[in-house]
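Sample entry (416 residues):
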Amino acid sequence: MNPRIIENQRRIALELIDRLATRLTPGRPFLEEIRREFQRRKHFGARDRRLYRELVFTWLRFRGWFDRVRAAVGDERAADLLVLLAPDSPEVLPLQTALEQPGGLARKAGNIVLERLAERIPEVELRLEDLLPGWFRSHCPALFEPEEIWLQTRRPPFWLRAQRGTADELVHELGREGIRSVASPRLPGAVMLHEYIDFDNHPLVESGRAEIQDIGSQALLHMARPLPGEHWLDLCAGGGGKTLQLAAMVGADGRVTAHDVRRDALMETRRRLNRAGLKNARIEPVLPEAGFAAFDGVLVDAPCSASGTWRRHPFLKHQINPILIKRHARDQLRILERGAERVRPGGRLLYATCSLSRHENEEVVTAFLKARGDFHLEKPAWLPKTVEAAEAGWVTLLPSALNSDGYFLACLRRED
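Predicted structure, serialized as tokens:
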């Protein structure tokens, strides 16, 4: 490729980063900001958008290193860093080849990456821990282990759940379309695609045979094991991913009630239930009265900081702060208390988040149990071989356990 084109692409990447950095603030829809910035540049074609999206996301994943390199040795070396660490896509390959590193370093092990970068940028010491917010170490020390930190720089696999039929049948159907995938040996129904594709409107999804759902999210309900014939309340149903999974697990003799304060989210849940042909779930915009303790189980998949999803959404680690996490924790405790009032004696209350902060997880459950002596913690009914429950009984699902996002689960039982 013409050296002038390559130099221009590197310059544009830095311009985009500088503009987007000013909008990386709490609560701001950052993906929408990227889309608007691309729209502003009328000359961008599809290939340009793919290239700069890769470079922007590489910056988000490696910002701790990028900022240090840029401050110490300038823009040119910082642009080198971005190119070397970007995924080896066809759009990025010409820039990597120009640096005599075709394919870049993204697929190499963390220690090899550090060695190569030390050779290229000896003026700056780069440490793995600089890739995560330092203040978060006290929230989840385990996330600062080298394996976990390095996983944070890589997008997690694309997972499906077989809604109807088995995982092997789903893999076979995908294979007929030339889509390479594999059934998980760790979790029934989970299927991993070997590449990311736009699957939202795929016939397998639109026909209700498959749902897009991270394997870690799928694992939470497998760990709790709702029983056939039970009646469950999904208190924070959102778009309905776990509602559908619950409905499949309790079977035709069971029932699932889906509630959420967001009416638009419930509309999406209804759409997904209809396409899956599930008749044992209903939408309930108005929450059943407190004290109406008729549910065998209540799932509280609570809104949270989503710190467990930094692999998938790296911008979030730059938008969150300790103050916001404490606000989430206060709201989560209130929601958990609302859910508790609707659990029958002897029934179960599941508390789940996609956060890895102890303030949103262990501390919320501890505060709840202190206030509610009629509930106690139980260990999960089942655990994947790579996952262990804490002595107290709750589970922190780190990304390395299933090559997934990160999650937390506490299984609580109400006294008879």
